[in-house]
Structures are given as C-alpha cells and as structure tokens.
Amino acid sequence: MNRNANPPKAASFDFRKLMGRLFGTITWTPPLWLGVLSRFKAASKDASLHRFATFTRMTPKRRWIVALAATLLVVVIAGLVLIHRHAARQPRPLTVQCSGPGLTKLEDVI
Asked: What would the pLDDT profile of 40-98 be if each residue is shown by its tens digit?
C-alpha cells in the first residue's frame, strides 16, 4: 500500500459554473472615467500610506501629541455638531399682539 498516494477527491461543486449554465454569463466593461478614478484612488492610497509611515516613524512623545490633537479635534467638531442640532430643534419664540373688543353697549333686548 502506497502511503504517499493522495486519496481520491470527492466531486467538487462549482456554483459559478452551475449559475453560468442555468442563466448564462454576464460580462461588464468599465467606462473610461472609472479608470481615471481608480488611478486617482491608487495615488491617494500611496500618499496616505506615506503619511501613515511618517506617523509610525515619529517619536512616541510626538506621536502621542498628534494623536491627542486629532482626538481633541474630533471631540470639538462633534460637540459643535451636537450644539447646532440641539439649537435647531428648539422652538422659536413667537410674538403675538391682540387687542380686546373694547366696551360694548348693554341692551335689554338681544
């Protein structure tokens, strides 16, 4: 008996092949402007990776200061948004002016 021999594989089920045989295949070619966006995204991703690498090379004290400043900025912006939303939900004061009908005559017959 050969121990190095692989056991026979069970029949594999390919869902994509089955769907392709049942419903056909769909192909899609992206528009040209999408390629421009993907190149822009790749360039910005490279820049963000560079910024992250710069952040990780900082001294621990400077990294702590940058993280604290970023957290403080997020908290201040969130606070301003909450104050604005709270002020927008407050009822607006109304001023109403009215005058009474004045004195009326008293009559015996109505």
From this structure: 666 666 666 666 666 667 788 888 888 899 999 999 999 999 999 999 988 888 899 98
Burial of 27 (0-12, 13-18, 19+ CB in 10 A): exposed
CA 90 – CA 86 distance, rounded (Å): 7
Burial of residue 71 (CB within 10 Å: 0-12, 13-18, 19+) is exposed
Cα(9)–Cα(3) distance, integer angstroms: 16
Place of tokens 């927008």: 88
Tens-digit pLDDT profile for residues 19-39? 888 888 878 777 777 777 777
Look up residue 17 and give its amino acid.
K
User: Which run of H or of E encompasses 64?
Assistant: helix 60-89
Structure tokens at 47: 């820049």
